[in-house]
Write a structure and sequence with these properties.
single chain; 549 residues; six-stranded antiparallel beta sheet; 38% strand; 19% helix; Jelly Rolls; nine-stranded mixed beta sheet
């Protein structure tokens, strides 16, 4: 029994290390190069045929230069890869050689880092921007970027536990994945309606498209199921917002469009009353506040922000750049394990509950990011931000009425369950909403892997759904080109609506004692914090022992 307990603790610690780069409010992530094919293993030609399978951005490397390859095609008869070469965005890749000879990749903008395949071409072939044909036999190697969790964990004060084996746990965001692409090349764009895990909480979602890269005549997306779940997409269309130059637009969670111009950063940001996090939340960069202060005594973790209030400004819009954490997915899975064989019965009961009851319960547990305004009487609940998933940060907006505020400063409090959210930046705008116009573009087709068109299921908000029951189910959705407006700027969103059901199964008897604790308001957060501290204490003890203390 003792050996089993010890093994369980070590496994738990290794899982923790897999998340170590995410368990700090201020963290860096590292990436490594995995060789898919080279001249020695002879797999280059075979690998080129599978480039579409990886659904990655394709980069061409020659000496010290890097290029983006789009609209690529593989000619198996003539053994040529053809396509269009563009200059590569500098944010795609940065790497440096380490003393031990390994290539460790470090990325400031992590949303690009694990979405790339690099093709190294010999000097005999001239690579320049424009149309290009690359003989397959001129390729020296093909590599892919992957997260290096060990290096990420080692960059912190807790070293890796020796032992010669690694357990890697990756918890991805549930919900439909969306890729933007053309021809054979698709790039990850985002996820749709995250958190809508029952039909009763089906919702609209507005995913802003940054740097939309599509062909001149049409736009193409791939909607894909990559998890054990059933996905139901009710609507999928493009929303084109025409607006003045120099302003930004976002939908709030109800779908109302707001504009903002100059975001004012907070002048204070503290957790647990004293811990300063201002530097972590004043810019979109590689630092975040993760609502993971273990000294918090309340069930939920909070961050109190102080802003200056201009005279005669009674309206404002709070804009955050944030995402859900991988740890939150891990903690949720641990809760489901407590249900054991009763998990499916619990899901069935949840499905029958009214949506307002489910939303109220999720707020009490700190699952969405809740916003409070401090008035002369108390902290007043304003609203909450919907879940955005774990894969990428989003900009989120919320209007806040300041008519009850007296004086030239005011405070806003954000509340979250223990390490359920990463807050990258926050700012407030006091300008009035500007006039905008909106065009909607309906899809032309939605073709699945068998050639069946599901476009009618996506056209309107109705009772017809695009349904994905299996992992790897997908459709290719095509649109006409967006009508251009020569006098105004345009911002494009994917407007989707739907929900999904997890189909994971669990075994064993329910742990009712722990479940009763979790059921209390904030119980999920307390459970998450407890797990974190248990692992931290175990690692600290292990480190002390390994150092001879």
């Amino acid at each position: 029994m003792l050996n089993k307990i010890k093994a369980y603790k070590i496994l738990f610690a290794i899982i923790f290390l897999a998340f170590q780069g995410m368990l700090s409010g201020c963290f860096h992530r590292y990436y490594q190069k995995t060789t898919l094919a080279n001249e020695e293993n002879g797999r280059i030609q075979k690998t080129t045929l599978k480039l579409d399978y990886y659904r990655k951005t394709i980069l061409i490397y020659q000496q010290d230069s890097g290029y983006l390859l789009v609209n690529f095609k593989v000619d198996t008869t003539n053994k040529i890869i053809s396509g269009n070469v563009k200059p590569a965005n500098p944010s795609y890749i940065h790497f440096s050689s380490k003393k031990d000879g390994r290539q460790i990749f470090y990325k400031e903008e992590k949303r690009f880092a694990t979405n790339q395949i690099g093709i190294y071409v010999k000097d005999a072939v001239m690579i320049r921007t424009g149309e290009v044909s690359i003989p397959i036999d001129s390729i020296s190697k093909i590599v892919m970027l992957e997260s290096n969790y060990i290096k990420t964990g080692a960059s912190y004060t807790i070293p890796f536990i020796p032992g010669g084996f690694v357990a890697l746990l990756t918890i991805l965001c549930n919900c439909p994945y969306v890729y933007t692409g053309d021809s054979l090349n698709y790039n990850f764009t985002g996820v749709m309606f995250p958190g809508a895990v029952y039909k009763s909480v089906e919702r609209n979602d507005f995913l802003k498209l940054n740097n939309l890269d599509a062909s001149p005549n049409s736009y193409q997306f791939k909607i894909m199921n990559l998890k054990k779940e059933h996905q139901y997409t009710n609507q999928f269309e493009l929303m084109i917002v025409n607006h003045e130059k120099g302003i930004n637009v976002l939908n709030d969670k109800e779908g109302v469009l707001h504009t903002y111009e100059n975001l004012q950063a907070p002048i204070g940001a503290v957790s647990s009353g004293t811990n300063d996090h201002l530097k972590e939340v004043t810019a979109i960069d590689n630092t975040s506040y993760a609502f993971n202060d273990p000294t918090e005594t309340d069930p939920l973790n909070s961050l109190i922000l102080t802003f200056t209030k201009p005279k005669n400004s009674n309206t404002s819009k709070l804009v955050v750049n944030a995402k859900n954490t991988d740890w939150s997915g891990y903690a949720y899975n641990e809760i489901c394990k407590l249900l054991g064989e009763k998990y499916e019965d619990w899901v069935a009961k949840q499905t029958q509950k009214p949506s307002e009851e489910i939303k109220a319960g999720s707020i009490k547990q700190g699952i969405p990011l809740s916003v409070y305004l401090k008035t002369s009487k108390s902290w007043e609940f304003i609203d909450y931000y919907n879940l955005v998933g774990t894969m990428a940060s989003r900009d989120l907006i919320m209007p806040i009425d300041l008519s009850k505020i007296e004086g030239d400063t005011f405070q806003i409090m954000l509340k979250s369950g223990f390490y359920f959210w990463e807050l990258n930046s926050i700012g407030i705008d006091y300008s009035a909403d500007k006039k905008v116009s909106v065009d909607y573009l309906k899809p032309l087709s939605a073709i699945d892997s068998l050639g069946v068109d599901h476009v009618n299921a996506l056209l309107e908000n109705d009772t017809s759904y695009l349904i994905h029951y299996n992992i790897s189910d997908y459709v290719i959705v095509k649109f006409d080109s967006i009508p251009k407006n020569n006098t105004m700027n345009q911002t494009v969103f994917i407007h989707s609506k739907g929900y999904y059901n997890r189909t994971e199964t669990y075994t064993g008897k329910p742990n009712y004692k722990e479940l009763m604790k979790v059921k209390k308001p904030g119980g999920f957060s307390v459970f998450s914090r407890k797990k974190y501290i248990e692992i931290q204490n175990f690692l600290n003890a292990t480190n002390a022992k390994s150092n001879g203390n």
